[in-house]
TrEMBL record:
The gene is LOC118428956. Binds 1 zinc ion per subunit. This is Metalloendopeptidase. Its EC number is 3.4.24.-. GO terms for cellular component: membrane. It comes from the Eukaryota.
Length: 625
């Protein structure tokens, strides 16, 4: 007969709907029965019957939005204190009792084989899976969309082909289809000539540099694998395994490798490979990283956890204070309104003088550092904020610890503008010493003065290379051969709910760099290259501030690359890190002259702007004193 072996889109569908509930019989050469249909066969048939044209057949995002990552860390679900990955669900109306049993069985399978804990919602949450009984299609969103109840639709047939339920849930957990892996061409042949016109994009594969395979073997038996005839135009196979006689696709359950994939992605019982130690996914978005400069015995202090051993001078008129979290200094039109370290109001602390009554013109407040035993050339850096029409002055005094003799080594008088400014002062100590920040109140209450991020490092100030991007790229260049460019920006990025909203250096009108994630067409990498840096026998400390906020945030990587192409990954951070600037200190020790490559790999969606600012490098370890 003229009927093709199997035309999934048409005849399979007809059969599926005609003979629901009973295995359908043989049809000439057609030896595929209901029993043989894989999870994906049923899903695709249902979606095509419903006239749905979804990304890769069943994902409720446009191709543009999903991007090419199997796992978008920004779309991961949070772990509970018990170490289990918590995915709340709601079974909405329309499911029969029998359906609910099938759903429960799927949840049970996840609980049994993986660390994913599906549990029923009891209150309205920011993120949960809303299970909907559908008569038009089986589909799911990809990962945690954080958009209230995210739809996961299932028809009668998909529920009956139990693997389809497991499949759609696994999209929600954060996985795409197995044959989209970057290495799939080593395992399967895509027969492009058998794919229906216009459906070829369903066979795109992921591209590097995604940690997409999780270092696990290719899994022909994955419940996430397309079937042999997916999107066929003529009944012939569209996917042919390179291994003879292997079954592809799955009907009944998640495979062992599927379970391992989930546990690996979420770091349950196995660590994600390819991520250097100590730089893994930080899922605690609200975590404020206390600057590593904070320590009780040094001059360096970011005021994130108190005074770091700084004390009030006893011979002065009033005291320095720490800001209340989330508050500007109490008076308007004066003082900093946010922390310098984090760039945010709601995170971080700085020290300031409050100029309001009862303070008088000419009152002094001194803040005394711990005693430093450092010797030789050092650079003392700090940020100060002097905003207000009646601002007095800020002096930095060097005090000989033994004699008490004082030297004024730096000072500023009067208003400097509503932003944080950096000061650098060379100190060449021959004996123990302290420094004192001495602020004088001006002739009115518009005179709050703030200080933050005090840091003292070995070497002269000139030996520290710094780029704040405020005036230009300071010799940093774009890699020409990748898809995206870093741009300088001031204020917030164009997209809401992602990216920095201000420069890190000044907290105000300066510039930072970032890669705009919106409207990129599957292109994914932007590399910013430093000027060449000579090799140093003592290595280098590289410090930079990053801002990784947005639910789909991808990777930030720093590599060292030399002229011979020797390329070393030095630092990697994955996923959302909170709506604040954070600091990274990375010690590197390349043997030859090198350049730093900062790479932004965009996440799976537009909400993934990554900002970078205040890149600094200096010879030596990342110690502060
Ligand atoms: C869960 O579904 C029920 C039934 O459709 C609905 O009434 C309820 O509001 C849903 N709960 C949430 C948190 O959305
Ligand atoms: Ca601070
Ligand atoms: Ca800047
Ligand atoms: Zn799917």
């Amino acid at each position: 007969m003229a009927v093709l072996k199997l035309v999934v889109c048409a005849c399979l569908l007809g059969l599926l709907h005609q003979v629901r509930g009973t295995p359908f019989g043989r049809d000439g050469n057609n030896d595929i029965s209901w029993e043989d249909l894989t999870a994906f066969d049923v899903i695709l048939a249902e979606n095509e019957a419903a006239g749905l044209d979804l990304f890769e057949g069943d994902i409720l995002d446009s191709a543009d939005q999903v991007r090419n990552a199997i796992q978008c860390t920004g779309r991961m679900w949070p772990k509970g204190p018990d170490g289990l990955v918590k995915i709340p669900y709601n079974i909405t109306e329309g499911f029969t009792d029998e359906d609910v049993v099938a759903l429960q069985r799927a949840f049970h399978e996840y609980a049994h084989k993986t660390c994913v804990d599906f549990f029923p919602v009891t209150t309205q949450l920011d993120a949960f899976v809303s299970l909907e009984k559908s008569d038009s299609g089986c589909n799911s969103k990809f990962g945690n969309m954080k958009d209230g109840g995210q739809k996961l639709a299932l028809t009668d047939s998909c529920i009956r082909r139990y693997g389809s339920v497991v499949h759609e849930l696994m999209h929600a957990v954060g996985f795409k289809h197995e044959q989209a892996r970057p290495d799939r061409d080593s395992y399967v042949t895509i027969v492009w000539g058998n794919i229906r016109d216009g459906k070829e994009n369903n066979f795109n594969k992921e591209s590097e540099p995604v940690v997409s395979t999780l270092d696990l073997p290719y899994d022909f038996g994955s419940v996430m694998h397309y079937s042999r005839t997916a999107f066929t135009s003529n009944g012939q196979d569209t996917i042919v395994p390179k291994v003879p006689n292997v079954q592809i696709g799955q009907r009944d359950q998640m495979s062992d490798l599927d379970a391992l994939k989930i546990n690996t992605l979420y770091g349950c019982g196995r660590t994600v490979t390819g991520v250097p130690t100590g730089t893994g996914v930080d899922m605690s978005a609200n975590f404020v990283q206390a600057s590593r400069a904070d320590s009780d015995r040094t001059i360096s202090c970011a005021f994130e956890s108190g005074w770091c051993g700084y004390t009030q001078d006893t011979a002065d008129d009033f005291d320095w204070v720490l800001n209340e979290l989330g508050e500007a200094t109490p008076s308007g039109n004066t003082g900093p309104d946010h922390d310098h370290s984090t760039g945010e109001k709601a995170h971080g602390h700085f020290a300031f003088i409050e100029a309001s009554s009862p303070r008088q013109n000419g009152d002094f407040a001194g803040l005394l550092s711990p005693v430093s035993t450092a010797r030789g050339p050092h650079c003392l850096k700090f940020y100060y904020h002097m905003f207000g029409a009646e601002t007095g002055s800020l002096d930095l005094l060097y005090i000989d610890a033994r004699s008490g003799g004082k030297n004024r080594i730096w000072w500023k008088i009067g208003e400097q503008g509503d932003f944080w400014l950096e000061a650098r002062v060379d100190i060449d100590a021959q004996a123990d010493f302290q420094v004192m920040f001495e602020a004088m109140r001006g002739h009115g209450y518009h005179g709050d003065i703030g200080i933050d991020d005090i840091e003292m490092v070995a070497g002269t100030c000139d030996s520290i290379h710094h780029c704040d991007f405020d005036a230009d790229f300071c010799g940093f260049q774009q890699l020409a051969t990748d898809q995206l460019d870093w741009v300088r920006n001031t204020g917030h990025t164009p997209s809401a709910t992602t990216g920095p909203d201000r420069d890190h250096t000044t907290g105000s009108s300066g510039h930072y760099v970032y890669v705009e994630a919106s409207s990129q067409d599957r292109s994914d990498l932007g590399t910013l290259i430093s000027p060449e840096i000579p090799a140093s026998t003592s290595g280098y400390c590289v410090t930079f501030w990053y801002h990784m906020y947005g639910r789909d945030t991808g990777f930030l990587r720093m590599r060292t690359v030399d002229r011979h192409g020797h390329d070393q990954l030095e630092y990697e951070l994955i996923g959302e890190q909170g709506d604040l600037w954070k600091r990274a200190d990375v010690f590197i020790n390349p043997a030859t002259d090198f350049r730093l490559h900062f790479q932004d790999y965009i996440g799976c969606y537009a909400y993934s702007d990554i900002g970078l600012d205040d890149i600094e490098w200096r010879a030596g370890r990342c110690d502060t004193v």
